[in-house]
Design goal:
- It is a single chain.
- The protein has a 6-stranded antiparallel β-barrel.
- It has 2 domains: about 160 residues, Thrombin, subunit H; about 45 residues, no CATH class.
- The mean pLDDT is about 80.
- The chain is an alpha+beta fold.
């Protein structure tokens, strides 16, 4: 027999509870469907990459697993709140990269990865995690020049926030936070298009011209040598070599 937590006036013999989650399953199911439909309708397409770092096979002394490769891309839908450039902090000298808050439907995310083995191979549950990366492909697909969607790395994942994520106590979505990815040749990822180093050539040096004797740009040749500068201006080890650290040529 169920425990009756209140038997006061108006309750009678039905042991009525204003909030009983076990009796709200139909309502929770409706909200779950609404959340998934809203994200699929209002969300943006992204390319999602699963970080296959696995503590069981990683070198946890150094916190790295050089053999791990990002799995993907897998196209998903996410509702995005994007804060680009964070100019309010940049003007005070802080390095404030783009950051965002996003929302995944729990059921939609699990359905997208159900036919893959990546999470099974990792012995992990099917859910986003800190360290995963995604590219905002739909948002950036019509950018001018040789540009494309930015990459973001997930820094936080949350499924519980009673004030905003869990009406009727149900669990419908993941809220993730992300920071702009600093690409460092991670296996399985590519750098952002248009994010090139400045170089001395026609594009970012002297403009090519056929007018008169105007110089045209070619790739700049650097003839300086740091070893020669060190010998001349710091200490010539060929004269003052003590052999403590080995030879010097």
């Amino acid at each position: 027999m169920a425990t009756c937590y209140y038997s006061g006036a108006g309750n009678g013999t039905n042991c009525f509870e204003l909030y009983d989650k076990t009796r709200m399953e139909p309502d929770i199911t409706v909200i779950s469907n609404i959340v998934e439909e809203a994200i699929n309708t209002l969300g943006q397409k992204i390319d999602y990459y699963v970080n296959t770092y696995n503590p069981l096979s990683a070198d946890n002394i150094y916190g790295e697993q050089p053999t791990s490769i990002f799995y993907g891309p897998k196209q998903l839908k996410i509702y995005i709140e994007l804060n680009e450039n964070a100019l309010a902090l940049s003007k005070f000298g802080y390095n404030a990269d783009d950051d965002l808050t996003g929302y995944f439907s729990i059921s939609g995310y699990k359905t997208a990865f159900a036919a893959t083995s990546v999470y099974t191979d990792l012995s992990q549950d099917i859910e986003p995690k800190a360290g995963d990366v995604f590219q905002m492909t739909e948002y950036g697909n019509d950018r001018t020049g040789n540009r494309a969607g930015n990459y973001f790395r997930i820094t936080e994942r949350l499924d519980q926030d009673i004030a905003s994520l869990n009406p009727l106590g149900g669990h419908y979505m993941w809220r993730i936070k992300g920071k702009r990815l600093e690409y460092s040749f991670q296996p399985g990822l590519t750098g952002e298009k248009g994010n090139d180093q400045v170089y001395d050539s026609t594009f970012s040096g002297i403009v090519s011209s056929t007018i008169g004797n105007q110089l045209s740009s070619t790739g700049k040749v650097y003839t300086e040598n740091v070893d020669d500068a060190s010998k001349e201006y710091v200490l010539d080890q060929t004269v003052n070599n003590t052999d403590v650290y080995g030879g010097y040529s």
